[in-house]
Amino acid sequence: MVLTRRGFLAGLTAGGVGVAMAACFPDDRRGPPTGGAGGAGGSAGAAAGNVLAIPPLLEPVVRGDGTLVFELTAQEGASEILPGVRTPSWGYNGALLGPTVRATRGDTVAFDIRNSLRDPTTVHWHGMILPAAMDGGPHQVIEAGGSWSPEWRIDQPAATLWYHPHPHGDTAMQVYAGLAGLFIVDDDDSATAGLPSAYGIDDIPLILQDKTFADDGTLDPDRIPNFGIMGNTMLANGTASAVFHATTGAVRFRILNGSNARRYNLEFSDGRPFQVVGGDAGLLPAPVETSRVAISPAERVELVVALEGGDDVRLVTRGGGLDIDDGDFDLLRITAEALTPSSPVPARLPGPKPIHAPSTARERTFRLNGHDAINGEEMDLSRIDTVVAAGAVEIWTIENPVYAHNFHIHGAAFTVLEVAGRAPEDAMSGHKDTVFVPPRSSARIAVRFADHPDPSMPYMYHCHILRHEDEGMMGQFVTVAPGTEKRTPLRLALEGGGHEH
Ligand SMILES: [Cu+2]
Which of 55, 57, 65, 124 has the most CB atoms around its CB within 10 Å? Predict the structure, then answer.
């Protein structure tokens, strides 16, 4: 199977594919910061940095029945990420990353997705609770030149989700090339929660990624042993040396770890505390004050930081003791002059209640083997590994005997019960869809599964270190009508004979 890296590397090595240079977003993303300390006039020198790009909100067309219809095209392009350097990159509706999709609980959303890449791709809605056939996993392949039109009704708490490719064996390179975007779900409670909520003003999306640039400006796909790509240049929303000029006394950052492998140990450069208000799959029930929070690939954290006029502070990641959190890096410089006052973070937030497993809950164990298998088996697209009653709550234990991994479940949300035998940090106590499992430890989670029975179309669970996922550290489960578990077939008849490594 020759999916791997073909199109992206062809773009890298052919000296470009004749596409025009394009900024990833329509706003000016490369000018000097407006009024930041030490602004360098028009030269936009490295010391001054580059204005943080804000992904535009994707405007839907509203159908007669109220359905919100969004259009996304996966495409090749080129971006000026480093000053004066042309970098071939991939994006949705642009050359790098994608627009932010936004919808409210209760909305029916539909997508017209076109694949104008030269490779097959998929668009997976990470964190969305939806029928498996709409999930955009490795079974919903969109061939080069093809299209896909999923549709579903959103029914889950407000959260910062995201979308990205999930073609089996090629996810790492497609994400690294630039395919990723945010999907914000609102609900009635989040609208009145009293949190900063002016998109791009005091409610700031922040997609953190690490890249390495080769001398010719191309993205270097070199990998470190065991984990895959660890870049040496930090990007925020595709902006290198990013600067955000704050205008309000409190700013909410919706942070996505969009990296292939890197774990971020987030702090502010002056150690100031901040309030964590949300996690992967929803707001917290109350803000958690801390000065450090860590997110592994695909995890999200929402935080609110208080600023004062004259502030010039950096969001940084500090090197830790793992291969995947090596090194200290600046992620975003935040400058502040005259600030509009903000309301304090409310003491109570409308986060969903913890997911509670009944005493009769089914328990299962998943052991992460090396970096390419779960419970002794590599991913097989034709094999159903696990059958779950639709809508059930189960307790899953993820055992990790060797390397750093995390664990993501599609079409589900969970509460972390324990990591390495202890209750999770408060900041990780909300609803989640991805949990970090440190080396030589385990995690225990109470998982609520989607109530969309379909014995013939699986969801995935996998490590979200993308190289591990591509190498086979992934399994498949179906959700079925309660009582039909035992007669659910464990083989899928796939067109084309299934998957080979
Ligand atoms: Cu892993």
Answer: 55
